[in-house]
Every structure is written in C-alpha cells, then in structure tokens.
Automatic annotation (TrEMBL):
Record bears the keyword Membrane: yes
Membrane-traversing stretches: 21-46, 52-73
Ranges where the YdbS-like PH domain occurs: 78-153
Pfam families: bPH_2
Protein name according to UniProt: PH domain-containing protein
Keywords for this protein: Membrane, Transmembrane, Transmembrane helix
PANTHER family in the cross-refs: UPF0699 TRANSMEMBRANE PROTEIN YDBS, UPF0699 TRANSMEMBRANE PROTEIN YDBT
Length: 164
C-alpha cells in the first residue's frame, strides 16, 4: 500500500474490529466495577451495613456496562473518519459533539504507532499525530495500514523515522 492508495480523497473509517476492541475494554472495566458493587452488597448484607450504596453503585455500573459495551463502540465507529492529504490531516469525530480537526503537515512534529495488548489481539494499532498544541489519535486501524499511514504522514510532514 503506498501513499496514493491511502489518499483516495475520501474520508476513511476505522477497521470494524475496532468496535470489538473498544467493547472488550469497556466490558473488562465495567464488569470489574459491577463485581465490586456486588461484593459490597454481599459484605454489607453479612455485616448488616447499609445496602443502598451498593444498589446505587450496581445500577450505575450496569447502565455503564450496557452503554460503554454495546452502544458507544458502534457510535464511535460510525462517527469517526479521517483523511490524509499532501498538505493536511483531517479528522472528524463525535456523534453528539462534533469535532472536525485539520492539522497542516507543517505543524506535525512526530508520528507514533502504538499497539497495546487488546489492539494486538485484534491485529490493530493506533497512530498518534503530535503537534505543539495537541496529540491526535487514530485508533483502530489494521497494523499494516497503521504502519503505512505513519510512514506516509511522516514523509509528508518531513518527520524523521527513527525505526528504520
């Protein structure tokens, strides 16, 4: 895959597996919180403590589990797109609060590639574009596509790649 294949002029989306990786992360975090609330309820019942904080926590964590595991990953995937042009990187995100960001290539100081355990499990990676003002992330690309995107942005922004 070369630059012309990456830059077809259309906004691109993340890989569909990104939804699964996001949902699995949320499931682990919110599942742990739900188990903690259940643990509190058990201890509170045995020791005759007040039960309502456990019930409130359990309700909140179950709602959070449903929202962050089944609803939000699809919304994030549907409402995130990006485009790389010769002179800029454009990122659109958000379904309730829309954010449209354009970063001129002359402002790009560094391009990073990350792949934590969950992203690696799905063969995905995250590209981070660092400027003096902010760091933008494109998380959920196939590993090969992410490496090519990193190289392309680095080349267009004239950023040295110390990995090669």
């Amino acid at each position: 895959m070369n630059y012309t294949e990456l830059n077809n002029g259309e906004l691109r989306r993340l890989h569909p597996k990104a939804k699964q990786a996001t949902a699995l992360t949320a499931l682990m975090v919110n599942g742990l919180l739900t188990l903690l609330a259940i643990g509190y309820l058990i201890v509170a019942w045995v020791r005759d403590w007040v039960l309502w904080p456990g019930w409130v926590g359990l309700g909140i964590f179950i709602i959070s589990l449903i929202w962050y595991t089944w609803i939000l990953p699809g919304l994030r995937h549907r409402h995130f797109s990006f485009r790389v042009a010769e002179d800029e990187v454009e990122i659109h995100s958000g379904w309730l609060w829309h954010t449209d960001t354009i970063v001129p290539m002359t402002r790009v100081q560094q391009v990073e590639l990350e792949s934590g355990p969950l992203l690696r499990k799905y063969g995905l990676a995250k590209v981070s574009i660092v400027t003096a003002a902010a760091t933008l992330h494109i998380a959920g690309l196939e590993r090969e596509e992410a490496e090519q995107l990193k190289r392309s942005i680095g080349h267009l922004a004239k950023v040295e790649d110390h990995d090669e």
